Amino acid sequence: MTLSGVRIGDARVLDARVLADVMGQANAQLDWLPRVYSGAEEIGTLGDMIDAGWVRVARLDQQVLGFIALRGGEIHGLYLCPSVQGKGVARRLVDGAKAGRDELGLWSFQANVRAARFYRKAGFVEVARSDGTGNDFGLPDIRFEWKKGTT
Asked: DSSP letter string over 65-108?
C-alpha cells in the first residue's frame, strides 16, 4: 500500500463508528490493556469529540487509516489501523497537531513502549509518571510534552 495519497482532514459525525473500529483494532494489539468501555460508549465518546471539533482523520481515498483527538494543546488519543503503523501516518497527524502551536502534551501508558518510542522520536520529552490512579484504566502512565523549537 502506497501512502503518498494520504489526506488529513476534519472528522465527520458519521466517522464515529469507523474511528471506534480503528481504535479497537489498535487496542487489540495491546494484550495488557483492559477493555473498560463498550463499543457503544466508544462510538458515543468519539461522536462527542467529533462534534466538538477535536478529531482529525488520515484517509487514503475513502479509507480511514487513523485519527488524532486534540483539544487545545492536549492530545487525547492517537490511533492507527495496524496495517499502517510505522509508515509515517501518525507522524503526519502529530506534525499537523504541532502546526500553529507552541506546545503539546499527552499521557501514554508506561506499558506502551512503542508509543513512548514514537513520541520521543517526535520530539516529546517525558516530564512525569503516575501510578494510574488518575486514568480510567488504572494503569501507570507517562506524561509527555513538546515545546516548539526543541526539535
From this structure: EEEEEEETTEEEEEEE-GGGTTTTHHHHHHHHHHTT-SEEEEEE
Give me the mean pLDDT over the 19-37 stretch. Answer: 92
Residue with cell 464515529: 16
- Alpha-carbon distance of 108 to 26, in angstroms, equals 14
Buried b (16+ CB within 10 A) or exposed e, 121-142: ebbbeeeeeeeeeeeeeebebb
> What single DSSP character describes residue 118?
H
Residue that is written with C-alpha cell 508509543 in the block? 115
Over residues 41-72, the pLDDT tens digits come to 999 999 999 999 999 999 999 899 999 999 99
Q: Which three cell numbers stand for residue 114?
A: 512503542
Cα(110)–Cα(95) distance, integer angstroms: 23
Please choose, from the candidates 73, 10, 11, 9, the residue with its C-alpha nearest in 3D space to the C-alpha of residue 47: 11
The grid coordinates of residue 81 equal 489501523
83 contacts 95 by C-beta, under 8 angstroms: no
Output the pTM of the full model: 0.93
- The pLDDT of residue 102 is 97
Whole-number Å distance between alpha carbons of 88 and 74 = 21
